[in-house]
Amino acid sequence: MVGTSIDIAALEQSIFNQVNSYRVSQGLPVLTRNAAIDNQVRIHSQNMANGAVTFGHTGFSQRIIAIGTSYKAASENVAFNQGYSDPAKIAVQGWLESPGHLANIRGNYDRTGIGVASNSGGEIYFTQIFLR
Questions:
Q1: What are residue 116's phi and psi, to 5 degrees?
Q2: DSSP β-bridge partners for residue 112
Q3: What is the pLDDT of residues 2-27, one digit of tens each?
Q4: What are the percentages of helix, strand and coil residues in the chain, rounded to 5?
Q5: 59: helix, coil or strand?
Q6: With contact defined as beta carbons under 8 Å apart, do 1 and 122 qualify?
Q7: Could you tell me which of 4, 23, 87, 94 has the fewest CB atoms within 10 Å of its CB?
Q8: Are 77 and 83 in contact (CB under 8 A)?
């Protein structure tokens, strides 16, 4: 996939659709996508992609505050991969196979935001925040 353009919006939408499909399959309500959350998680994914922060949850509380909306609970999933024809599917599969990430996907949340970024090395970074 190196050298090909990556459709960031399509990857974000794919994550959103896959997570909601999973939730529906489990009898859980769908999440609504929130632009303010999207903006914060896109920044985090870009910062991880360009090496400004290490891969992980650094700055999570600051991202939640920057979203600027009230909430009762919040959680975050991050992933990265490279070289896959469907990187969003690989990211979601990884989350579904990880107890902590799965708990976030199955959690009592109603809003979400998804941000994807890539770097020149072909690494693709994913961040998803869940809010209630």
A1: -125, 140
A2: 33, 130
A3: 445 789 999 999 999 999 999 999 99
A4: 45, 20, 35
A5: coil
A6: yes
A7: 4
A8: no
